[in-house]
User: Fold Pyridoxamine 5'-phosphate oxidase family protein from Phytoactinopolyspora alkaliphila.
Amino acid sequence: MSTPQPLTDLHPSYSDDNAEPTQWAQASKALSDAELSWITTVRPDGRPHVTPLMTVWVDAALHFCTGPEERKCKNLMDNPNVVLTTGTNTRREGLDLVVEGKARRVTDTSNLHRLAEAWVDKYGEEWRFDVSDGAFRHASGHGEAWVFAVTPSTAFGFGKAPYSQTRWRFGRH
Assistant:
């Protein structure tokens, strides 16, 4: 089954004259390759909460895990809307990405096993998880981690050589 392609727009006011829109294939590869992302969730009082985490890109969604008692997880229970960002942290090279969507908890055992393997493939054996009761369990005994998937609703890419601002819209256009 092929992944639907998003509607892609280049914002000319924030792009160099010779800029082209970044292709979604390039952006999804950058999401897949990123060692670190930042997640923004919303606290119950409306303030933002931002923290770094590791993600895997599987089945056209970013996946992350967190303990059920962590602030970001508590925030997600009240409001599943998130922003995930990653990039190069440089001014004149690379691609910065912003992914907007809703986090949904993954509890299906077969999907969790596939995702656990994706973590090992990307981050190595120290990130090997066991799966039980709809969650990851770390072999070191650090408790359980809940897994969430964020399928992009909208994403933005900020290219820097040349400068460009691309927007991708998914689903309904």
User: Anything to note?
Assistant: DSSP finds three helices and eleven strands in the chain. The CA atoms of residues 32 and 57 lie 5 Å apart.
